[in-house]
Structures are given as structure tokens and as C-alpha cells.
Amino acid sequence: MLMEQATAVRREWSAVCGSVIHEKPKFIKRTRDKMWFSNLDTMSEILQAYQFSAIKYREDDGSVTLSLNEIDLIENGADERKARRKLGEAILEYSLEIL
After folding, report:
1. 63 Rama class: left (phi>0) / alpha (psi -120 to 50) / beta
2. pTM of the full predicted structure?
């Protein structure tokens, strides 16, 4: 069965988790909701195709500005680490806005 029912997944939680970790993702249906359950390795492999690049600008005040090439987002932070964090948060916000 391609889509497993949530009640069956709950009943066999340990077996389902083991299967997802060691074998393959599962698709789960709960009423009208449909979910995908996978391990982080699988998710990383899928997301590896999506790469972002940014141009780094060092500002006169010593702060760092990052301008994302693939999406029109620009963030500034006191240092590169803080600018990266802000840019990551901006990407997440952007992804939630387009839904």
C-alpha cells in the first residue's frame, strides 16, 4: 500500500520508525491530511539539489551584508555568522509567504 493509515502507523510506531530509518520513507494519511515520514539522510539527499549562493559585502562599519542570488533577499549582521543566520530566517519566512 502506498499510503498508510495513521491508525495503523500509531499501532506499529516502533516498526514504522525502524522501517523509515533503515529502509525508505512512508506516506501516511490521516483523514484528509497526507504526510511524508522520512529520516534526515533521505531529506538531505533530496534537498542537496537546491543550492543557494550569496554575495558577501563588508560594510564600512565592519558589519557583513549577504545578498542571495537565487531569491531577492538581502540581510545584514554584525558578522558573517549573524548575517547567515538572518538570511536563513529570511529564506524560511519567504518560503512560508509563497504558500
Report:
1. beta
2. 0.58
